[in-house]
């Protein structure tokens, strides 16, 4: 493809769930499907379920490097096109081996730190009520550890955000204890989601789409030289330890004034 005279390296690449041509066959709308897709890419700042765009030039580089990676998936339904998770491309074969759904893709972007915004749905375990945590700032670190022949990774995640929706009506949303509790529950939900996704990509697909190999190559180059030829197999056996910290710094407008009126302070 590099030798093609009309090669356009800046073109973006996606994977369709179904026939690719159907994503460009929208009836009853004046909007050009390709322009619609480009607008969807721009929404990355407010969603954990949208990957950074992959150009044709970057795609060919990934294929030549034999690295596993993700491609944003697109599906057509209800007369419109929308993003629907991601396709998993295996590094050694260069073939599409499966898909991650939207929640699983969100877990991957949380590990990699490719997060500019988004929300986490979680449950208040004391009341059973559903709440929504909105990410305002985020950072993630991946640290490899080598002990003899044993390889493991430590993932540290810290997020700050707001409680943008809460159905816990018998608590004061202004209360620091309440906000701290919600942050802990949000962190537990994030950890559960990530562990389920890791199980899928390590055991089913055996494809390092996260970039653990890059961290190992940087921090432990001698170990990387020994395992790079069979990396996907090594990755599938590696232990991953998670440390998730979620801090609610804002309470939004989630019923806080109603709660204050219902629970007035004493004399």
Summarize the structure in words.
By secondary structure, this protein is an alpha/beta fold. It has a single domain (15-262), classed as GMP Synthetase, Chain A, domain 3, CATH 3.30.300. It has eight helices and eight strands, in the order E-H-H-E-E-E-H-E-E-E-H-H-H-H-E-H. The chain has helices at residues 33-41, 56-65, 102-112, 176-205, 212-219, 221-227, 231-237, 256-262, and strands at residues 15-16, 69-77, 80-89, 96-100, 118-123, 130-147, 150-166, 239-250. The protein has a four-stranded mixed β-sheet. Strand 2 (69-77) and strand 3 form a beta hairpin. Helix 3 (102-112) packs across helix 4 and helix 5 crosses helix 6 (221-227). The longest helix is centred in the last third of the chain and has 30 residues, at 176-205. The chain is flat and about 65 Å long. The model is unreliable at 254-267 (pLDDT under 50).
